[in-house]
Amino acid sequence: MRKLPVEIWLHITEFLPNDTLSELLGINQFFFNLAMDVRYREIELQDIPKAFKFLSQLQSSPTIAKRVRRLKVHLDQLGRLGDPTTNPHELFMVQDRPTIPLRQRLRSTLVNLRKRYSQRPSRVSLEALLEELTLILPTMSNIEAFLVYSWNIPHQRHDLVRFFSAAWSGFGATLRTLSLGGNIEGFKVIQASRPVLPALTELRFEFTDNMNPPTANSPEALAHAALIRTLLHDFVAPFVNDLSPHLEVLKLWSWASTDLSSFFKSLGPFPRLNALSVWAAFDRSFADNSSHLTEVLYQTSPTLKELMLRLNPTGSRFSDPQSELALCHWLSETVNNNEQFATGLRKLEVYPSASDVGLDTLITCISRSATTLEQLNVRDRYLFTPETIRIVTTFHTDARLTFLRLNLRELPVELFDLFAKYFPNLQTLALRAADGEPTAVSWNLSKDLLGDLEYI
């Protein structure tokens, strides 16, 4: 059995339940190391008890730190639990409770309770937890994926520069995936921590506005908008561009009301990018100049294999048709002005708008990648049967598609014959059906009807 590569054994362990995995620990050293690698491969810190439990394990066995490959830290949730204004009953309390000798257990319950709770518990602050993590992170030298979310953390109150600097010193040289989520003002902390990430191939950004934004259209709001644009241009864009020569995956999701036009103008080039994901409200994020997003798409087209564009105006799922005019025009112009765009894609996920022009644009993209597409996900548009038929028949009958997700206004049985004819390799079929208006969503399919296909 030892002759099998470790990677194969790791794959086998993915199918084992936790209790079986625990039993492997006692077989021999090989299976002990294998089980420990699986147990600590992914660590997620989202509440203070789990965080301190993990830190105590590292203190008792320092070799555990080198087994971690993926670390996910929710600073926003840890900060809420560590906030002294939080309800004390929601907090994790650290107490030094004395051990009770056996003879004392015979005493009355009242005496035991008094001894057990006589000391006042102390709250754990986020600052204390960050200090502990700052000491531990340099020892976690084998982390390949680092995910940090700090949506509501006041960065001026916490030393996150030291936190990130400790992370880079520990695993910056080998890190392959970095995912950061938070308000835009906090991203300048990343640049201040001076990251050197030569092996990074996947970068994910999710950002939003300040949790307490100024009143709309006020002088403070205008000044704040100017500040955010400066931060994007002076901190976020240079950080992305430092990594661009070796980036293969880039995800930019914005829930902010800030215009991203100048930010996209500052990006690139990306000579090795094969996956691009952009999710933002088109009318807010590209009101100034949408051509800079177009330039990024054109520049990456030769290498792009996966494309996700969710540009619903105002971020809503069912937009007002009038609010989509600019998006429709941009989609049509972007696709039709460059015949090389959207060619050779393996994965396409897009909101095509609710207009006929948007559907035509989607059909054009599919036709350009009909022989290579393996996954198609049409987001948020509910299709009539003729529209669904147009999409399906754009493919050849020997299409490579293995995943298909559609939203349908109606669901005739004939569609399944069409799916079977054009998609012989289909493994996952996700259909969302609506009775009448899309806002009244109901599920009209069952697993029995779909047979071996997966219904989501």
Could you describe the largest sheet, including whether it forms a barrel? Answer: 12 strands, parallel
Average pLDDT metric:
80
Total of DSSP H or I helical runs spanning 4+ residues:
18
Structural class: alpha/beta
User: How would you name the oligomeric state of the polypeptide chains in this document?
Assistant: single chain
**In angstroms, what separates the terminal alpha carbons?**
39 Å
Radius of gyration, taken over Cα atoms and rounded to an integer in Å: 26 Å
**3D shape:** globular
Q: Give the helix proportion (percent range).
A: 25-40%
Number of strand segments: 14
Outline the fold blueprint.
Layout: H1 6-13, H2 18-24, H3 29-39, E1 42-45, H4 48-60, E2 70-74, H5 75-82, E3 93-94, H6 109-116, E4 122-123, H7 126-136, E5 145-150, H8 160-171, E6 177-183, H9 188-192, E7 202-208, H10 219-243, E8 249-254, H11 261-265, E9 275-279, H12 282-285, H13 291-300, E10 306-310, H14 325-336, E11 347-350, H15 356-368, E12 375-383, H16 385-393, E13 403-408, H17 414-422, E14 428-433, H18 447-450
Helix pairs in contact: 1-3, 4-7, 7-8, 14-15, 16-17
